[in-house]
Known about the structure:
single chain; binds 2-acetamido-2-deoxy-beta-D-glucopyranose; disordered N terminus; binds NADP nicotinamide-adenine-dinucleotide phosphate; 300 residues; alpha/beta; five-stranded parallel β-sheet; 11 helices
Amino acid sequence: MMGTLCLCLDLALLLQMKFLRAKLGRPPKWLLMWVSVTSMRHSSIKMKRRSARPSERRWRMLWSTFLRPEFVQPALEKSLTKLGLDYVDLFIIHWPVAMKSGDEILPKDASGKIIFDTVDLRDTWEALEKCKDAGLTKSIGVSNFNHKQLEMILNKPGLKYKPVCNQVECHPYLNQSKLLEFCKSKDIVLVAYSALGSHRDPNWVEKDSPYLLEDPILNAVAKKHKRSPGQIALRYQVQRGVVVLAKSFNEKRIKENFQIFEFELTPEDMKAIDGLNRNFRYAKLLSAVDHPYYPFSEEY
Ligand SMILES: NC(=O)c1ccc[n+]([C@@H]2O[C@H](COP(=O)([O-])OP(=O)(O)OC[C@H]3O[C@@H](n4cnc5c(N)ncnc54)[C@H](OP(=O)(O)O)[C@@H]3O)[C@@H](O)[C@H]2O)c1
Ligand SMILES: *[C@@H]1O[C@H](CO)[C@@H](O)[C@H](O)[C@H]1NC(C)=O
């Protein structure tokens, strides 16, 4: 099941790549790379299902306890050993807020509070550039960066490689229009996570958060096209030039999530969905709100 699911996910990404190529007239180079990373990642999870706890899977992205530059390459090398690979295609910084380095995935003090660290992200970025130069990854990118943090990397003296992507929460309730515009102007691909309104895991998402897929407008558009609200939410992103992630453990919904290339939303539909924005973020990660690099205090 896991194998099928992941293959499906990858296929969906491939389809999106075809679509984006047709739409934008240029192939998003890194996307193929992303597709192969996910497939490798998932085949490794399948092989090592017993040890593939979510915390370990994060090492395929650079987890926050490894942001100090001297830990970056060893972290990637450890991942590669686990994957049985010589290189990955895309390596991204998961989140700009560093946590205390060490063996703990979520280092906590005696009172249960996460112990943070302050690391200059430009130093982390240089370490990612070195991983690329060492042939350990084909492309490098970031996740959960605001535009100032992206700018800080882009303006770094001696910058060798730009981030190819910024993976952020993005859906009709948080349309990220300003960040998207910024990313497009810098040729950075915006990748949307929680595009269906998130997994609603109570560890990360407040219980009283609105249910995106129950939104009446989204449902009206869905009804009109004889599609599901989930398909409309995914299609919306593809039509605005966003690469969209969709996660499901259900075979029917996985299939459904592919079928967003057979129909098109009209400009009126797009406008109606644009009207849903309320700058609502599901994953606020408030435990880090006082950290100087907490990304979500900025408007975008
Ligand atoms: N970079 C980051 O910090 C970060 C943070 C969060 C997530 N992500 C990435 O983004 C991916 C997805 O994000 P996410 O897990 O937050 O949430 P999501 O993709 O918005 O939503 C997943 C939820 O939607 C359900 N679902 C899937 N397809 C559906 C459909 N067609 N209709 C109705 N419900 C549907 C799934 O349930 P069923 O399984 O029951 O279908 C699951 O509970 C993750 O796998 C992760 O790789 C990255
Ligand atoms: C995004 O949200 C803003 C603010 O609510 C809204 O004006 C805009 O139309 C929405 N969509 C896009 C594509 O900007």
